[in-house]
Structures are given as C-alpha cells and as structure tokens.
Known about the structure:
The protein has 14 helices and eight strands. By secondary structure, the protein is an alpha/beta fold.
Amino acid sequence: MKISFEPFDFSHSIRWLVAGPCAAESEEGLRAVARVLCKVRDANPRFRVQAFRAGVWKPRSQPGTFEGMGAEALPWLTRLQQHFALPVCVEVATPHHVQQAYAAGIRQFWIGARTSGDPFAVELLAQSLGKLQGVECVYVKNPPAPDLRLWQGTIDRFKRQGIQRLVAVLRGFYQVESQYRNAPRWDVALDFMLRNPTIPLLCDASHIAGRVDNVPKIAMQSLEYGLQGLFVEVHHNPSTAKSDAKQQLSPEQFLQLLDDCAVQEALFAPPPEEESMELRHLRRQIDTIDEQLLDLLARRKQVVLKIGEWKQRAGVSPLCVVRWRHHLGALVRYGREHGLSSRFVGSLGDRVHREALRYQLEQRDEAPPSEAPTPTE
Ligand code: PEP
Ligand code: MN
C-alpha cells in the first residue's frame, strides 16, 4: 500500500528551500551546512525547509574528474537525517542509485538535467521509484535544452507511475550566448507554471548563475516571477569544493541571501498588483468575459447537436470538409478585421470544430477520427 500524502500546500507567504552542497565530500562538511539549514528552519517559519541536498553520484562532463563519493557517502547522509531530523535528497540517475539511496533511508530524490532529457533513463527511474513505498518527493530538473515538451514528458512519466509529490526545478538551459552558466529562460518557466498549476517550481539559482555573485539576482528574479522557492548549493568552504566551486554559497552568503532585504520583500510582501484596484477590476472583467465565452460555447454545442440529429436523419456525414474550410476562412478574415491573428483564429476555430465533430460522432456512437483536416490545408 502506498502512503498517500496531502497535496502540496501553496501559499504566497511561505517559500520552499532545498539547500546543501553540490556533492557530499565529508561527513563533517555536510554537518556544518546542515546546522545552518536547521538554523533557518527553526528561526524563520516563513521558510519551509524541504530538504538538504547533496550529490552522491555526480554526472560530470569529463571522465576522471570528481564523480562523487558514491555509496561511501550514504551512511553520512543516513546519520545526518537522523541527527538533524532533516530530510535528505540525492540525485539519482539509475535504478541502482535509487535502490542504494532508498536502502540508506533516503526518501527524496532529484532527477538531474542530463537524466531529465533522456526518456529511457527517466522511464527506468520512474518505474523503480513507483515501486517503492513512502517516497516523499521527486524533484525534476529541466533538461538542458529549452524543450518544454521534453520536461513535461519527464514529469508525466513519474506521474504515470503514481509518484504524487513532484516538484519541478528550473536550473536553466544551455544557450550559446548567455551571461549566465545556463540561461534562465523565464518564459519557459512561466509556460511550465501555466501548464502545471499543481506542481511547485523551485529555482536552482546556483546552476543558472554559475557564479556566487549572480546567485542573489537570479534567486530574487525567480521569486518575483512567482516561483515557489529555491534549490541552492551551499558548501561549508566553497574554495575547497571538488565540484562547482565557483557557484556554491558559503554558509554566510547563504544566510545573507535569505536575509537580504530585497529578497525579503520579494518573498513576503504581497505582489504589488494585489494592491491595485484597477488591476483587480480589469481581472474581474477578464474572468467575466471568459465565462461568457464558455456560455457561448455551451450554446453552440446545443445547436451542433441539433445539426447532428438533422444530418443523421438525412443520412448525411457529420464531416463536410468544404463547408468547414469555407467557414474557417471566413472566421480568420473576420478575426483579422478585429485585430486577432490568423494563426490564433485558425487554431481556435479548428479546435472548436473538432469538438463539434466529436459531439456528432458520439451521437452516432462512432469514435472520432484522430486527425481531422485543418482549415489551412
Ligand atoms: C547538481 O544539482 O549538482 C547538478 C548536477 O545539477 P544539474 O543536473 O542541474 O546540472
Ligand atoms: Mn552542482
């Protein structure tokens, strides 16, 4: 029997934090960072410390560089979890990683960028995590390419295996020209949030920024854009770090980041628009118009059903391509005259017609065709 968890609780005033070193290097080093994170957890209830992060197996571009301590680090993390009552999350890239980490008592896992872009690996991981009881959370980083469908596909593979508590992590995208290590592409992040309103999105400001001095700026921007919290690298002594030394915050820098007035503002002040009556009023108008659009679509459906009955009585096929093209052409022209793009009206009209066709086929107990012709064909 799977443990069923409450759905995530989103709130404006609470920000999530996942922090810890890029890699687990020594038990003492881990403990030094864990102490800082516990201080944050205990001192400021407005931060919800979700987990302590530490890489055990590191995906590195170059062989022969530090690839993590591997299983040797797991007992350190087991003890750390118990000692600080702090959940630990590690990166897993293979089912074997999952099994070893799970056996060490770890219940939170993150899927790194390189793995997240590999559907074969993701499928294997999703299946192996889906079989385990008590998985608390799976964090899914975006893949290196700004391909929302690929990221979404990864999320969906975990959902399909019954993983309920998924959290997405924006760690930026590979881009030839970028002032950062990875381009944040806030447009992709916003698109992700729109499509996944129930999945929290955290910002891995460290892997976007690539340099300590840029981390606060990225972190603040992410919170202004409405991301749910931060997933950041903190090392007890960054200058000695064996991986990602340039981007890991020291404990002091981490506390400074969280204390920073501007961050505080972004975190805890209500978004400025909430104070604006004008915006509230305009949004109310939009809501009303959207309802009216749905009312019209419901009315349209009734007419479509009547036409469907008529066609059935007359022995006429529901699909009349000539009429369809003609009508959509007229709609596109009409839309253009009213400042709406042909592309938008074309795809909207197409969608509405497909749905109408589906109603009429359902009336006859027939399955709808998988692809009906589009107006531009
Ligand atoms: C990491 O978090 O240390 C890491 C390897 O990140 P990414 O997969 O985003 O490169
Ligand atoms: Mn790292």
